[in-house]
Every structure is written in structure tokens, then in C-alpha cells.
Amino acid sequence: MPQPRKYATPAHRQAAYLERTRQAQHELLTQRGLPAGPAIPSMPGKARWASAIRQSRTLLDMVCEEMQNYHDDRSEVWKDSEKCEDFIGRLEAIQEIRDQLDAIDD
């Protein structure tokens, strides 16, 4: 027995699909705490972009703090090792990226 049609036409099926994808995108933005995009796609989403930059900055702050605490908890032997030098290099690179975000944050 054939399965009954959900949608009368392929156009109705595609419209339902587009609505589901729009809803999923909206839920994703809501979960991340970002404002919705502009109604007209060609308009810039400055508020959304600024919010994403602020969130990135917050995450980088968290990473820097955790990495610094990790470094502080290590032994003096580890702090004199090459692993520590590599670790400090990564930490400084992350701090530099964080500082660069400050320059573009409005």
C-alpha cells in the first residue's frame, strides 16, 4: 500500500522544508544567545556580529584564565622544560587574539 502524501504538491513540500530550516536556524541562534539576522539578507547583521565577537572574547578570557591556572599549578621542573615554553607560546598567541578582538569590538 503506498504511503499517503503529506503535501499536495512538490512546491508545498519545499515550502515546508524551507520553514523547518528557518526554524532550526532561529533555534540555533536563540540557543547561542545571538539576535536574529536582519530581515533583508543584504543588510549587515551588526548586532549579531558584535554579539558573536563579545562571546568569542568571553570564551578567550575563560581559556586564558584556565591556561594561566594550569601553568601556575605546575612544578618548577615543568616550568623549566620545553613543554612549558610551547605552552606559554600558545597562551601568548591566545592573549594576542583576545587583544585584537578588543580593537574591533564596538
What do you see in this structure?
The structure is a single chain. Helix 2 runs antiparallel to helix 4 (82-104). This protein has 106 residues and is mostly helical. The model has no long low-confidence stretch (mean pLDDT 86). The chain has 4 helices and no strands. It has one domain (10-34, 48-104). It has helices at residues 10-32, 46-73, 76-79, 82-104. 0% of the residues are buried.
Characterize this entry briefly:
The chain is mainly α. It has four helices and no strands. α2 packs antiparallel against α4 (about 80-105).
Number of strands: 0
Overall tally of structural domains? 1
First-to-last CA distance = 61 Å
Rounded to an integer in angstroms, the radius of gyration calculated over CA atoms is 23 Å
Rough outline: elongated
Q: Share of helix among residues?
A: over 70%
Tell me the structural class. mainly alpha
* Strand fraction: under 5%
> pLDDT average, as an integer?
86
Oligomer: single chain
Biggest sheet layout:
none
Element-by-element helix/strand order: HHHH
* DSSP helical segment count: 4
- Unreliable stretches (pLDDT < 50, length at least 5) are none
